[in-house]
Specification:
It is a single chain. The chain is of the alpha/beta class. The chain contains eleven helices and eight strands. It has a single domain, classed as 3-Layer(aba) Sandwich (Rossmann fold), CATH 3.40.50.
Length: about 290
């Protein structure tokens, strides 16, 4: 077996980045919360990019339905912990990676995690977990890289002084402790994110709207397909690279959508146009949910 050599491993990175920048990449510390879909795709690229200090967290085991889009899900990892299966696979890419792993205990350790890792990838699909991450990130001066629950790949970057997504999307959770947040609040959060996605992108053109309505009504799981999920994860990995190297990026705290059907970027609309479109979207969604 050929001995692992870091310089040879990252040799083809050089040209995209300088050797000095590669040292910055190697020594960076990143937290990826949720290593299933987009989080798994992102951490896979981060490890292959040469980062050698990664903290990961996930509370779930791999299931058969994960294989269609989650890069570390396969017939060998079914029923196994996502976080430890991911750790095992990352060490096969680079045996020198320092990996810190958390399962259900990660929220209790989040202050410590944020002290160490100033770049956070939100790969969770849980509202309460997301709120906790963003609130702690602000307290500790961390940047969070995230994506919308969107049929189109997307990415946004929330720096420490930026408004939190709950403020941008006007969630009913603003000013509430996590213990005060109700299931009705969470339903409204889901609705408002979908409303934002439909207002600011052409996502609705590329899905079965009746199936999407069943997801909104809690009657089925969220739709996902490999190119969308893995593409989103890699867009997030690019943003990590830009953050590490302090390079400019096209993503701010509202982000953008990538439309592969048209080969173009879709950025949030201007506020005046968005105001009128959002009213139409809200009316459409409310009618759709009534019919379910």
């Amino acid at each position: 077996m050929e001995k692992f050599d870091y310089k040879e491993f990252i040799n083809r990175n050089i040209g995209f980045v300088t050797e000095e920048q590669q040292h910055q990449i190697q020594s960076s510390k990143i937290f990826v919360c949720g290593v299933g879909g987009m989080g798994g795709a992102c951490v896979n690229s981060l490890a292959r990019m040469g980062i050698e200090d990664i903290t990961i967290a996930d509370i779930d085991d791999f299931e058969l339905s994960n294989i269609n889009r989650q890069v570390f899900a396969n017939t060998d990892t079914l029923g196994k912990s996502k976080v430890f299966s991911t750790q095992e696979q990352l060490l096969k890419l680079n045996p020198n990676i320092n990996i810190t792993s958390y399962e259900k205990d990660w929220p209790d350790s989040l202050d410590q995690i944020c002290d160490k890792n100033k770049i956070i990838i939100n790969g969770t699909d849980d509202i309460l977990a997301t709120l906790l991450i963003y609130r702690k990130a602000k307290m500790h001066g961390c940047t969070v890289i995230d994506a919308y629950a969107s049929p189109l790949p997307s990415v946004y970057v929330v720096k420490p002084d930026d408004p939190r997504p709950e403020e941008t999307l006007n969630f009913p959770t603003i000013g509430k402790s996590l213990d005060e947040i109700t299931s009705d609040d969470i339903d409204v959060c889901v609705f408002k994110e979908i409303e934002f996605v439909m207002t600011h992108s052409s996502s609705v053109k590329y899905i079965d709207i009746e199936i999407a309505a069943e997801y909104m009504a809690g009657k089925r799981s969220r739709m996902s397909i490999a190119p969308m999920v893995i593409g989103t994860g890699n867009m997030m990995a690019y943003e990590v690279l830009f953050a590490i190297l302090n390079k400019p990026s096209g993503a701010d705290n509202k982000g953008y959508f990538w439309n592969p059907y048209k080969g173009k970027i879709e950025k949030p609309r201007n506020p005046l146009l968005a105001f009128f479109i959002k009213a139409l979207v809200r009316r459409f969604l409310n009618k759709l949910l009534k019919d379910i």
